[in-house]
Amino acid sequence: MASRVNVKFVVILSAALTLVCGVVAYVGISIVLKSGDDLVRMGDAKLKEAESAESAGNNALAQEAYGASAFLYSKAVAKDRSNVEFLDRWATALSRWTPDTQTAYRSAFERSMAIKRQRAILLRTNLEAYHDYLGTLERQILLGELSRQSLDYLISETAAALQYFENDAGDALRRYRGRALVEIMDSNLELTEQQREQARADLLSALKVEPTNATAAVALARWGRSESKRVAGLGEAQRASEIEREAVGALRAFVEQNGTNTTGLLGLLTIDTEVALSKRGFSGERAAGVARVAASAS
């Protein structure tokens, strides 16, 4: 009797699995056969379903529908990778979907970054699109595991973006490369003289077109500090002092003109604290570390 039941169970299970596989295959084939516009319309329907569920307070159903809409939009993009509208819809759905695992979150973030990059490339000379991509990439690198490889990638991505702009039209983007080079300098990693000068030129150019950009102003002052230390190590104490005085003085003037900008204020506070600690005998790296902690606690 038990043997018969087991055989019957296996037969039922096999039939069920065959049915499920058939349904999955049908759904897969139907998606493959749909056009990009068809998939977008399906994604739009799921997005409206998600918004309705969210308004009704059914967050579980909303998240399921957001995930489904993101999937459908991704398939539309696969049909036409040059369609910015498809990319924008996919980005919107992803931004509203909350992954329930760390793996899913990482995957969604990577897709979001890919969308930003592809969108910027397609729009070519759209500064806002490149700021969105490079700015997010910069934050990811600086808040994550800072490495030479990641900074070199930001440098190369900035250089690739600048190729689309003529004359000084893209100079606002140069701050990303300039700051990345300064991060390398601050880490005492090897750079050529040309790269060090490139960092300064990039930051000056960015400030020329965006005089109130505090990130560029702080990075330029840090460039002066790092360059001063390097020159001092070569035995040129007077020249080192002049470089540092000029760089920090420029940041101080920036803060006076833009006093409400907290980025500039914290940057100056960090440098002033580092200088004070160095005068009290702290080593360069230890002084810099304590200075950063002091500034962040302010």
General description of the model:
The protein is an all-alpha fold. It has helices at 2-33, 36-55, 59-79, 84-96, 102-123, 127-143, 148-162, 174-186, 193-209, 214-233, 237-257, 262-279, 284-297. Helix 5 packs antiparallel against helix 6 (127-143), helix 6 packs antiparallel against helix 7 (148-162) and helix 8 (174-186) packs across helix 9 (193-209). The radius of gyration is 27 Å and the shape is elongated.
Overview features:
disordered N terminus, elongated, 298 residues, 82% helix, single chain, mainly alpha
Unreliable runs, pLDDT <50, ≥5 residues?
1-29, 289-298
Mean pLDDT: 86
Question: What percent of residues are in strands?
Answer: under 5%
Percentage of residues in helical conformation: over 70%
DSSP strand count:
0
Classify the secondary structure makeup into a structural class. Answer: mainly alpha
The major beta sheet can be summarized as: none
Quaternary organization = single chain
The dominant shape is elongated
Radius of gyration: 27 Å
Number of separate helices: 13
- What is the first-to-last residue Cα distance? 78 Å
- The helix/strand order is HHHHHHHHHHHHH
What would you say about this model in short?
The protein is mainly α.
Write the layout of secondary structure elements.
Blueprint lengths: L1 H32 L2 H20 L3 H21 L4 H13 L5 H22 L3 H17 L4 H15 L11 H13 L6 H17 L4 H20 L3 H21 L4 H18 L4 H14 L1
